[in-house]
């Protein structure tokens, strides 16, 4: 309940005229105290505004469980402080930018660490280095990052401003006024026009269509581009577009509070002493687009951040890479290592001062701050030395590390932006790195979460093939060889033969299997060009069909073919529309649009419809049919029918799922049914969506009786749908088969190949879509997420918690059975000896046998296979997913799967699955699934999508990729990277992601090595300088070591390094695998680098120290001075760094040569310039050293001791356990470039999962058409049957089959024979 004071009249509660009973004071106080904890109270309105309000509402308090709105009454609605329509996705403002950005940056421990060091360096008593050495790099890093963050946020501000400044027509005092979207408020009545975005969540009041209907496209919300219908109340529809009436509309709306449920709305409208129920079918949500409706009016219910679109958007998160998180951890370890060295030096200094130093105060006087007492003096000096060593050795984690990391990431982002191979010429769109902080994370992706519509598919259905009267049409066959031709729409004729297919590209892959066509192939002329339909004035230029025999049959008047296309032109609920003088169709599903479009192009043009008639044009002749009845589609019937009369003859035309139609066919002789069944199997095997067509004649008397009973059932008050279904069953019998259609939901170019390569790289791909179950399953087979290789495809579609729990338990048990009898991994020699010739494994698992794959995902020539292709293991390692599982989860079931009690069981099941498809999911559910994997697997995730419904998922994942598609730019604007096509994802990950990770890891290993080699020299020198914090090197050398001498070579390594070429990276996706386990840089690799650096520093210091200790030149000059030793150690250190990075570089460019050798030269140039031109303290030291043979002997000896172990270790490692990249690089060096592997075929034999159309189609508009309303609101569809219920079980014995073809070897070190 809402909390109100006793002054609120009961009229507000719907009990006008009654008096409020005031409870006793103690009870009232108790209730108010209780309600105060449950109800959010708003501040009372100011007194001068309160007077303007109706007195009945002057103390009204907003509630948390309902929302009250009065139309056209801003004063009333203002007291509740509802959100306005202004949206904000940016993170900063001008005022908050500096403090918030600095706060974010100082969350990096390194930045905070260097801030503390800078403060210490400002204290003269403990600092032996100038503060500038830390201040300049720290300010540089903060400024560089701040500029980047400001630019990113500026783009968000621009996008927000663009949206907020869109124009909306709002009623003010009965007149339409144009306002900004940001100015629209709850309760305003706004006008929308055709093709306009809905500004806020509104209650539909009236529209230009009959009966208050309007049509919307919800692609921004759920990814579906098919039109949906909404209908307002008939009482409000009567206002039409009368601005005066609409401006005077004063209805009160009581509805739910803002939430993220896209398919649910509950509320009531009180108007003119009547109450009307409101549901989701009367609501237009923000982000929808008005289609095929000239205008409509609505009252704003939710605005701005309260809209369901924004409620599903999720929050912008600060994303860090796993390397960033590891560096934060390592910095803690390095700080402890630094502190331990400082503590050791502190203790040692105190001991030395107490034992030795106090006797040398004449030569080394103590500071005036130090007490004269030897004990206390030694303690104070030791404490000061602690901070001095902390400053001297702070370069063990230099600030330049983060400067270099940011520069490398920035450069890598430009390499992504400039990659011409990710440029989509059709739209002129290039790939873009919208962030510069996540590049190396692209090389560690373990899970990809993808949208379906517009991401994997083009959402374009094409009429591909058909079978009419037992004759198959659509295949193009070579007239000489009889082989099926693969047609490519761009290049015309391609190579013949399914065995020589090289992938589908952008064309239609027409593969003929053993079932074949009935007409001999040699009799069909071959054609490589699409047919010319220009004889038909209503043809569509974009329509492509290649088999001329079907067009010839139409032109010669083949009765079966004419009846086939006549049915397609008549049996549907498509709405025709004239747009710019051109006939266009608006269908509730792309499938139905494709079928009507095919009939149109072949000369059977659907022209117009009325409630009682359908008009078509057949080869130029107009035919008008009387529409007697529409037997509408639903998910239980899986079919739709129309009953038509023409020239006194009544016919019933039906189309639907083939199994449903076949059950209702009339028993006839002949082989048409069997041939058509063969064609159905063939189409289903090619991943096409099939539909069966049939008809029957009706007698006038029988139809009249049936129509009477149909009318009675339509008026029934109880069980109306069940009675109508029974009536439909009576007449949809004894059908005559006409044929079947096969349409293709066109994938984007290269999707199967991309998914195959990403799967081979060890990346698991999940599809999260708002589309229907069967549609998602068909696409899963088309793009090879689902294959016949799999042990089982589970479907979880339970409606209740218990149902889902049982289904998950059954899935888990099935997985355990298969893993028990056929575990993954290499089989022992005993197991191989037990293997039977037919592929079954004898022993305990003899009755469990899986099908071998029909086509291997990728194959290589035999020279890559140890001992030939036939010697490779069929189950080579645990990553071999030939016996993997897949699971399909419905949205309503996912709600229960994500319940805390089922979350663990759900995770256990899905993590054993190679592919996961979640259908009918909301945007927020997508984000919850991503968060589940992030939490349970600690895996690096990537989300890719193209619509506003994908924004939550993109923000939740570690990496968000937006596709510049047809559904707007919301996904791109929320993403970290944007590409134009899904196929570019493999290049983004396998090439740029892998290179970025490889480069960053190599950079970090070398960087830590060189800095430990440089810094720890001070620690060794401490043993010889009384632990006085005296530095080995010149102060200027310390300042510029990381800035000039060693920065550019390592930057060139981090930007340009490649172990293999981009082509090789794509040919061998297994090269991507090291990133999954962070093999190239982890704690172990860090420790190796630091130990190597410490060893180098020890050698660098001790050998020159031993050589120059008490050393004399040939002319008798003393060489054992501190400055000479420092110059020698510094010079050998630079030579060692140069040699080391030269060994680390495998891909030499001009930049590498210039930076590596240039840095070595710059050391000598800058040293002489500083000491001679400026007058540095080390003037002449390096000159003296270089003129002495002692220096050259020392340098050569030191370099040999340092380099021989490194080179020997690398050669031994490469020979004993070389990586795949090393072996490929070696092979390319000695044998030339590796041949490209065959790309996977776009069509694979698959299990017969047909009639995707029947599942994907929604309940039709039949009743609306026949009732004269043209269209009506779509009721909630019944739960779809499981699309895979009829699939054969995988755990039963199967009949013997021919031996499977040898499986392609997986790519690893054992199968690459070099």
From TrEMBL:
* Gene Ontology molecular function, alphabetical: ATP binding; ATP hydrolysis activity; flippase activity; magnesium ion binding; phospholipid transporter activity
Positions contributing to Mg(2+) binding: 451, 453, 946, 950
Active site feature: 451
Determine if Cell membrane is one of this entry's keywords.
yes
| Top EC class, one word | translocase
Q: Which Pfam families match?
A: Cation_ATPase, PhoLip_ATPase_C, PhoLip_ATPase_N
Its needed co-factors are:
Mg(2+)
Can you say what this protein is called? Phospholipid-transporting ATPase
Q: Which residues bind ATP?
A: 451-453, 592, 633, 655, 689, 769-771, 920, 926, 949-950
Indicate where this protein is primarily found: membrane
Which keywords appear in this protein's UniProt record, sorted alphabetically?
Answer: ATP-binding, Cell membrane, Cell projection, Endoplasmic reticulum, Golgi apparatus, Magnesium, Membrane, Metal-binding, Nucleotide-binding, Translocase, Transmembrane, Transmembrane helix
Q: Which residues form the P-type ATPase N-terminal domain?
A: 69-134
How this chain sits in the membrane, per its record, is: Multi-pass membrane protein
Tell me the GO BP annotations in alphabetical order. Golgi organization; phospholipid translocation
Q: How does it assemble?
A: Component of a P4-ATPase flippase complex which consists of a catalytic alpha subunit ATP8B1 and an accessory beta subunit TMEM30A. The flippase ATP8B1:TMEM30A complex can form an intermediate phosphoenzyme in vitro. Also interacts with beta subunit TMEM30B.
GO CC annotation: apical plasma membrane; cell projection; endoplasmic reticulum; trans-Golgi network
Renumbered to this chain, the signal peptide range is none
InterPro entries in UniProt = ATPase_P-typ_cyto_dom_N, ATPase_P-typ_P_site, ATPase_P-typ_TM_dom_sf, ATPase_P-typ_transduc_dom_A_sf, HAD-like_sf, HAD_sf, P-type_ATPase_IV, P-type_ATPase_N
Which NCBIfam families does this entry report, sorted A to Z? ATPase-Plipid (TIGR01652), ATPase_P-type (TIGR01494)
* Spans annotated as Disordered: 822-845, 1290-1314
Q: Where is the chain membrane-spanning? A: 132-151, 326-355, 375-403, 1007-1030, 1036-1056, 1086-1106, 1118-1135, 1147-1170, 1190-1212
Q: Classify the source by domain of life.
A: Eukaryota
Question: What's this protein's family per the entry?
Answer: Belongs to the cation transport ATPase (P-type) (TC 3.A.3) family. Type IV subfamily.
Query: Where does the record place Basic and acidic residues bias?
Result: 827-836
Annotated ranges, domain P-type ATPase C-terminal? 972-1212
Where does this one sit in the cell?
Apical cell membrane; Cell membrane; Cell projection; Endoplasmic reticulum
């Amino acid at each position: 309940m809402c909390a109100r004071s006793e002054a609120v009249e009961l009229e507000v509660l719907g009990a006008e005229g009654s008096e409020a009973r005031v409870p006793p004071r103690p009870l009232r106080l108790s209730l108010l105290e209780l309600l105060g904890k449950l109800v959010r109270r708003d501040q009372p309105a100011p007194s001068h505004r309160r007077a303007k309000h109706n007195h009945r509402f002057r103390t009204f308090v907003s509630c948390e469980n309902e929302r009250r709105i009065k139309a056209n009454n801003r004063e009333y609605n203002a007291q509740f402080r509802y959100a306005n329509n202004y949206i904000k996705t940016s993170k900063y403002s001008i005022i908050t930018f500096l403090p918030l950005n600095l706060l974010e940056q100082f969350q990096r421990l390194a930045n905070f660490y260097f801030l503390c060091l800078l403060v210490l360096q400002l204290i003269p008593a403990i600092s032996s280095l100038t503060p500038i050495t830390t201040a300049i790099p720290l300010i540089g890093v903060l400024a560089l990052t701040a500029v980047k963050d400001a630019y990113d946020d500026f783009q968000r501000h621009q996008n927000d401003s663009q949206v907020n400044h869109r124009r909306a027509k709002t009623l003010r005092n009965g007149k339409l006024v144009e306002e900004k979207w940001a100015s629209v408020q709850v309760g305003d009545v706004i006008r929308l026009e055709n093709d306009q975005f809905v500004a806020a969540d509104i209650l539909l009041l009236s529209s230009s269509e009959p009966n208050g209907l309007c049509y919307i496209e919800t692609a921004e919300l759920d990814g579906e581009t098919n039109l949906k219908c909404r209908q307002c109340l008939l009482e409000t529809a009567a206002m039409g577009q009368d601005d005066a009436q609409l401006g005077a509309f004063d209805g009160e709306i009581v509805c739910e509070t803002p939430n993220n449920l896209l398919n649910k709305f509950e509320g009531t409208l009180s108007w003119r002493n009547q109450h009307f129920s409101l549901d989701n079918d009367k609501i237009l949500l923000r982000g929808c687009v008005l289609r095929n409706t000239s205008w409509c009016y609505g009252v704003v219910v939710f605005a701005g951040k309260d809209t369901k679109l924004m409620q599903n958007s999720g929050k912008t998160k600060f994303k860090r890479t796993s390397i960033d998180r590891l560096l934060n951890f390592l910095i803690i370890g390095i700080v402890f290592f630094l502190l331990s060295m400082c503590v050791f030096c502190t203790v040692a200094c105190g001991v030395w001062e107490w034992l030795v130093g106090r006797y040398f105060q004449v030569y080394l006087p103590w500071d005036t701050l130090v007490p004269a007492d030897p004990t206390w003096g030694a303690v104070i000096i030791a404490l000061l030395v602690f901070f001095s060593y902390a400053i001297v050795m702070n370069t063990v984690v230099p600030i330049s590390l983060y400067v270099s990391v940011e520069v490398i990431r920035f450069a890598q982002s430009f390499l992504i932006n400039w990659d011409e191979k990710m440029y989509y010429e059709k739209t002129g769109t290039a790939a873009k790195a919208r962030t510069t902080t996540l590049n190396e994370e692209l090389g560690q992706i373990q899970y990809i979460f993808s949208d379906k519509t517009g991401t994997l598919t083009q959402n374009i259905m094409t009429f591909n093939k058909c079978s009419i009267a037992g004759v198959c049409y659509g295949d193009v066959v070579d007239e000489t060889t009889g082989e099926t031709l693969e047609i490519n729409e761009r290049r015309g004729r391609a190579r013949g033969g399914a065995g020589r297919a090289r992938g589908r590209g952008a064309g239609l892959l027409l593969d003929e299997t053993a079932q074949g066509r009935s007409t001999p192939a040699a009799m069909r002329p071959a054609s490589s060009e699409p047919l010319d339909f220009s004889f038909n004035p209503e043809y569509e230029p974009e329509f492509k069909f290649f088999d001329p025999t079907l067009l010839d049959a139409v032109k010669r008047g083949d009765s079966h073919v004419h009846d086939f296309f006549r049915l397609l032109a008549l049996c549907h609920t498509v709405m025709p529309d004239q747009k710019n003088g051109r006939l266009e169709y608006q269908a509730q599903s792309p499938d139905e649009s494709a079928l009507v479009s095919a009939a149109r192009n072949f000369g059977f043009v659907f022209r117009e419809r009325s409630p009682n008639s359908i008009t078509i044009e057949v080869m130029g002749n107009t035919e008008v049919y009387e529409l007697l009845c529409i037997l509408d589609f639903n998910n239980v019937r899986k079919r739709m029918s129309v009953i038509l009369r023409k020239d006194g003859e009544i016919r019933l035309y039906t189309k639907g799922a083939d199994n449903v139609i076949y059950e209702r066919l009339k028993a006839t002789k002949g082989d048409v049914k069997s041939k058509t069944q063969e064609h159905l199997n063939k189409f289903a095997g090619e991943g096409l969506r099939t539909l069966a067509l049939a008809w029957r004649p009706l007698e006038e008397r029988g139809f009249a009786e049936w129509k009477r009973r149909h009318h009675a059932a339509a008026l029934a008050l109880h069980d109306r749908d069940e009675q109508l279904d029974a009536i439909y069953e009576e007449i949809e019998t004894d059908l005559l088969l006409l044929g079947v259609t096969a349409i293709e939901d066109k994938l984007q170019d290269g999707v199967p190949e991309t998914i195959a390569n990403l799967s081979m790289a060890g990346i698991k791909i999940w599809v999260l879509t708002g589309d229907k179950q069967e549609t998602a399953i068909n696409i899963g087979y088309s793009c090879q997420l689902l294959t016949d290789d799999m042990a089982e495809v589970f479907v979880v579609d339970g409606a209740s918690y218990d149902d889902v729990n049982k289904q998950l338990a059954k899935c888990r048990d099935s997985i355990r059975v298969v893993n028990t009898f056929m575990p993954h991994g290499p089989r022992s020699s005993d197991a191989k000896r037990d293997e039977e010739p037919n592929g079954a494994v004898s022993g305990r698992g003899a009755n469990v046998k899986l099908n071998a794959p029909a086509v291997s995902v990728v194959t290589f020539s035999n020279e890559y296979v140890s001992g030939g292709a036939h010697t490779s293991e069929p189950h080579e390692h645990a990553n071999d997913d030939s016996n993997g599982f897949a699971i399909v989860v419905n949205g309503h079931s996912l709600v229960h799967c994500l319940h805390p009690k089922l979350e663990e069981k759900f995770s256990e099941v899905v993590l054993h699955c190679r592919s996961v498809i979640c259908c009918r999911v909301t945007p927020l559910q997508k984000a919850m699934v991503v968060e589940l994997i992030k939490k349970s697997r600690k895996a690096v995730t990537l989300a890719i999508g193209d619509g506003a419904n994908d924004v939550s998922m993109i923000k939740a994942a570690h990496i968000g990729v937006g596709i510049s598609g047809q559904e707007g730019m919301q996904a791109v604007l929320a993403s970290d990277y944007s590409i134009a096509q899904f196929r570019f994802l493999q290049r983004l990950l396998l090439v740029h992601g892998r290179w970025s990770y490889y480069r960053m890891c190599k950079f970090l290993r070398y960087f830590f090595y060189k800095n430990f080699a440089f810094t720890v020299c001070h620690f060794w020198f401490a043993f010889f300088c009384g632990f006085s914090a005296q530095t080995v090197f010149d102060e200027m050398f310390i300042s510029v070591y990381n800035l000039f001498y060693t920065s550019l070579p390592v930057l060139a390594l981090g930007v340009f390094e490649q172990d293999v070429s981009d082509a090789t990276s794509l040919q061998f996706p297994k090269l991507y695998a090291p990133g999954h386990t962070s093999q190239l840089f982890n704690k172990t690799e860090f420790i190796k680098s630091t130990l190597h650096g410490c060893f180098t520093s020890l050698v660098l210091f001790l050998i020159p120290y031993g050589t120059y200790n008490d050393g004399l030149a040939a002319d008798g000059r003393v060489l054992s001075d501190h400055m000479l030793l420092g110059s020698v150690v510094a010079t050998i250190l630079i030579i060692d760094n140069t040699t080391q990075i030269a060994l680390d570089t495998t891909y030499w460019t001009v930049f590498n040569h210039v930076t590596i050798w240039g840095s070595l030269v710059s050391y000598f140039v800058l040293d002489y310039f500083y000491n001679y031109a400026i007058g540095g303290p080390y003037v002449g030291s390096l000159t003296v050293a270089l003129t002495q043979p002692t220096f050259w002997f020392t340098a050569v000896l030191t370099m040999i001791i340092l380099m021989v172990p490194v080179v020997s270790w690398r050669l031994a490692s490469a020979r004993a356990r070389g990586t795949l990249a090393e072996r490929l690089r070696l092979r390319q060096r000695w044998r030339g470039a590796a041949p490209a592997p065959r790309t996977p075929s776009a069509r694979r034999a698959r299990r017969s999962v047909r009639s995707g159309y029947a599942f994907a189609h929604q309940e039709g508009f039949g009743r609306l058409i026949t009732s004269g309303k043209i269209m009506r609101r779509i009721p909630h569809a019944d739960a779809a049957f499981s699309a895979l219920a009829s699939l054969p079980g995988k755990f039963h014995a199967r009949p013997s089959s021919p031996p499977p073809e040898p499986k392609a070897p997986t790519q690893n070190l054992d199968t690459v024979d070099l």
